[in-house]
Amino acid sequence: MRRALLLLPLLAALCVSPALAQSKSQLGPLCTTETTPADQMIAACNKIIALKVFSGSQLATIYFWRAVGWNKKGDYARVISDATEALRLQPAQAIYNLRGSAYYDKGEYEIAIADFNDAIKNGPPSGTLFHNRGNAHRGAGDFAKAIADYDQAIKLTPKSALSWQNRGISREATGDLDGALTDINEAIRLDPALASPLINRSVIWRAKGNVERAIADGSEAVRLAQNPPANVMTPPGSVVIAAHVHRALAYEAKGEFDAAKADYAAALKPVASDAGSKANQATAKVRLSLLSEPVVQPPQRADTPQPAALATGQRMALVIGNGAYAHVQPLTNPPRDARAIAKSLRDIGFTVVEGIDLDRAAMQAKTRDFLREATRAQVAVVFYAGHGVQIDGRNYLVPTDIAFAAGSSVTAEMVDMDQILAGLDDQVRTNILILDACRNNPFAPPDAAGTGASRSLSASGLAAPSTLGVGATSGAGTLIAFATAPGKVAIDGEGENSPFSAALSRHIGTPGLEVQQMLTRVRAEVVAGTRNRQVPWSNSSLLGEVYLAAK
Description:
This protein is an alpha/beta fold. The chain is 49% helix and 9% strand. It folds into two domains: 12-233, Tetratricopeptide repeat domain (Serine Threonine Protein Phosphatase 5, Tetratricopeptide repeat); 315-540, Rossmann fold. The chain contains 21 helices and ten strands. Residues 1-21 form the signal peptide.
C-alpha cells in the first residue's frame, strides 16, 4: 500500500449551513461525504462553487472535498490545483496532507515531503502524517528517514497495518530481509484483508529464493486486490497492477511462462495513474513482449564467443560493441572495447551475452535473450560501446544498420534504453548499466570544434536523466554510468580501446573494490588521460555497497 489519506473534520458546520440545509438537491452532503462516488462528489462541489455564496474557510472546505473527488479518480494535477486554492483560503493540516499525497503519487517526492512537513506543523501529532512522510522519504531513496518516520507512525498508531508494512519495505530495501519479514507478517496479522502486505511478502520470499511461497502470497494478493477495503484510499488499479506483476515475476523465476504472461497481460488492463503503477506497467509490457516473441537466434560471427548456459546464473551481463556503421560515422574501438569488458566480466564469474557489430534485429535478439534470463540473476550488468543518441528525453542505442532517412521513424530503428531498464526493474536485483557512448540528438547542428572520431552523431549531448528509466522501484538499486558528462562527447580514442573502456577494463576486475569506488578510479584516469576533455558521470540508486569482483 502506497499511502493512507488523512481526512480531518474541516469546518463541519458547512454541511448544516442554512443555505445548504434548505437545498433540495442536498449538494452539501454529496460534496462533503467521503463515501460519495467521485463523479457525484465533484459535480456537487462544482455546483456549490458556482453559487458564489461561500468564501474563506467554507469555500476552502469545498475545494478540499472536490480535491478528494479528483484524488479518487487519480487526477493528481487537479488535486494539487484545488488543494492549493484551499490552502490559499485557509491553511490546514488535512489540505497539506492531501496535496502532499498527490505530489507523492506523481513521483515528486521532495515537494511531497515539504507539504507533509507543513501538515505536521499545522496540527496535532498524527501517525498518518508520519506514515505519509515516510512514504515520500522512501520514494526519494532515504530509507533511514523513512524508517524513523514509520517508527513514529507505529508509536502513535500501533495498529496501523500500513505503517508496519511500509517499514518492512524500507528494511527490505536496505537488505534486512528478516526484519522486513517480521514487519510484513505483523501487517498481515493486523489486517488480513489487505492485499499489499502479501505483495511485499511475495517479493521477500522471492529474494530469499522461495518461489513457491512467493507465488502463494501473490495469488492471495490478486484475490484480495479485486475487492479492496472501502476505507483505504489508493490510486485506482494500483494494487491490482502490483499484485499481477509480482506474481508474474515469481512465475517467471519458476519457469511457468504461460502463467507469467497471463499475469502481465492482466496488469496492463487497469488505467495507471500514479508513478508506481506506471513503472509496474512498463515492466509488464516489456516482459510480456519478451515471453510472447519467439526466440530467433541471429547468424553468429565466427569470432563471437558463445554464452555459457544461463539457467541458474546469479551474475549476468549483456555486452555489445557496435563500430561497423553502414550509414553514419564508423567507430574503430567499440568491438575491441566490448571484447575486453566481456573478458573481464567472465574472469570474475559473470555469465556474459556478447554481441559485436549488431544490426537492429540482432541487437533486439541479444537484448531479449539477456532480459529473459536476467530474472534469475542477483546482479545484472549491461555494457554498450558505440553510437548513442537522446531524442525527446529518451536514450537510444544505435545499431549498425541505422539510416537517418527523411520522413522515417528514427526511434523505431534504434534500441530504447528505457525499455531495457523497464525489463530489468525488480526489487530483488542490482542493475548496473555502463554506456561508452555519447548521448545526443542526431538532428542537432554539428559542432565544428570537435576533433577526431567521437561516439556522437552530433555534439548536442543530453542532460542527466530525471529517473533511472521508466520506473526505478525501491528495490536492490540501479546504477547507470556514462563515459562522459551530460552535454559532452565521448572520445573513441586512438589506441586499442576508448579512454573510458580502457580504464574500465583495468579496474572492473579488481578484487574487493566497491563498484562506485571503481568508477571513481575510472573517472580519474579518463580525466587525466584526456586532459579534462572527458569526464565520466554516473547516476545511482544503489542502496549499499556492491562488489563485482569478490573481496
